[in-house]
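[job 0412] stage=complex_fold ligand=pyridoxal-5'-phosphate status=START
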Amino acid sequence: MTETPMRVRAPLRARAEIDLAALRANVHALRARAPRARLMAVVKADAYGHGMVPCARAAVLAGADWLGTATPQEALALRAAGLRTRLLCWLWTPGGPWREAIEADIDVSVSARWALDEVCAAARDCGRTARVQLKADTGLGRGGCQPADWPELVGAALAAEAEGLLRVTGLWSHYACADEPGHPSIAAQTARFDEAVAHAEKAGLRPEVRHIANSPAVLTLPESQYDLVRPGVALYGISPVPQLGSAADFGLRPVMTLSARLGLVKHVPAGHGVSYGHHYVTSAPTTLGLVPLGYADGIPRHASGKGPVLVGGAWRRVAGRVAMDQFVVDLGGDEPAAGAEAVLFGPGDRGEPTAEDWAVAADTIAYEIVTRIGPRVDRVYVNEEPADPGTDPDGPVGAAR
Ligand SMILES: *Cc1c(COP(=O)(O)O)cnc(C)c1O
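[job 0412] stage=complex_fold status=DONE, emitting structure tokens
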């Protein structure tokens, strides 16, 4: 998938610049909002397209206590890269790989009896005590154990703890509508979570951490913080609740800047169709710029005719359809040179659009815009280390890990 082995030293066609200082600052901002809770940096899906290992390292350097992934392959890749931080992995299917996870000191989430049984078998096989977090479905209706099945799951976990096969390190759940503060499901889910925790603790479980808060909950629901919070998208400087506030309003800074170099600039006459289907036709003689990114790179085809791009100090719109590898912008007669920079999105303070602007153009959420940026786009990491650890205003947090 990756072009790395073939990489030649030429200027990049396109790049996703990843500002790790912004990521570290976002960790600090989120910690300040949940000062009594531990922080799990969610780095699933290649850190929402930002690059899992560099982002995980930066988050730990900034003081993240835990890392979170969806798949076991992601969790094992973090261990293979040398990250020793506590790590929860929650998206399992029969067959695991449970044993590899247990041997790599990964905390595994269990929502059902079949999973608990497979964890116990793997722990027996390798002679280790598994670390298990039981997940309750408090109303999301996705992962997690239904309230009716919870007592049985808790009972089976207690029996396995007594045998030394596992230790229940956490009880947890996930909100459906945390991005809509005041939605009645939020209070209902919190109440059901309290009931699930109370039942498990009364039965004898002694979890280290109880947690339910994702990014929108960290930013808008202080009562949801419990022992640990699990922000994902906010770490990357994207507001999970754009209707309530921008990233800057929440003290967050976007981490990814996506740009490309124009592959061609040319004059065309009036009445010229542009791109597949000719959904755009020039209304006057003009110049067109070719942006060498397309839906294979994660540029949404649904943003055809709408996606904004900063070229030569002005916003241009995608003219016609986004194709697999390229799209066109109408430069209105301007003549930037081939190779000129086209910025699709970034923090916004150089006048460029943001990932949220692309989300609006494509009728989706900014989570999807950054996460889908594909492997053909080089990630270029900047500000990898604090400029001077001695004078870093955040101090040497995490430096000893
Ligand atoms: C993705 C995910 C998160 C992080 O969600 P954000 O909205 O990006 O903060 C937290 N917990 C679970 C279970 C997730 O799947």
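The two ends are 32 Å apart (CA to CA).
[job 0412] exit 0
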